[in-house]
Amino acid sequence: MELFGWPYDDIAEECDILKVAGYLGVKITPPNEHVLTEDWIEEGGLNPWGYFIQPVSYKLNSRLGNKKKLKNMINKCRKKGIRIYSQIV
Predict the structure, then answer these.
(1) Do residues 65 and 6 touch, judged by C-beta distance below 8 A?
(2) What value, to the nearest 5°, has the Cα angle with vertex 86 and ends 81 and 88?
(3) How far apart are CA 23 and CA 32, in angstroms?
(4) What pairing do the DSSP bridges indicate for beta strands 83-86 and 61-62?
(5) Which are the contacts of 4, defined by CB distance < 8 A and separation ≥ 6?
(6) Residue 36: CB partners within 8 Å, gap ≥ 6?
(7) 27-40 pLDDT, tens per residue?
(8) Please, is 1 exposed, middle or buried when counting C-beta atoms within 10 Å of its C-beta (0-12, 13-18, 19+)?
(9) pLDDT, tens digit, 9 for 90 and up, residues 46-60
């Protein structure tokens, strides 16, 4: 299942449902710190999905969650048999 752009806490909550639905893994957004800006010119949108793949550092802190939330999500999903796959930028 691709849950690109989902906050880590939300993914952790979905792992129960994903297991029952027969999924074996989840693809998540790169977990690095990424561009955040209000200078988006299309339709007044704030921080479009493409900004997720524009890292500014490799800190595990983004608008999706921090290192603690990422680790919690990974552990909870693993206990349910759901693997976590991340794009790496």
Answers:
(1) no
(2) 160
(3) 25
(4) unpaired
(5) 27, 28, 29, 49, 52, 87
(6) 47, 51, 63
(7) 998 888 877 766 65
(8) middle
(9) 666 677 777 788 888
- Tell me phi and psi for residue 31, to 5 degrees: -85, 15
CA distances in angstroms from 53 to 28, 36, 77, listed in the order given: 12, 11, 23
Residue with tokens 């550092």, as numbered in its chain: 57
Would you state the structure tokens that stand for residue 35, as one six-digit string?
Answer: 């561009």
Beta bridge partners of 85: 27
Q: Which H helix or E strand runs over 62?
A: strand 61-62
Structural tokens at position 65? 């969650």
Contact by Cβ (8 Å): 82, 25: yes
pTM: predicted TM-score of the whole model, two decimal places: 0.82
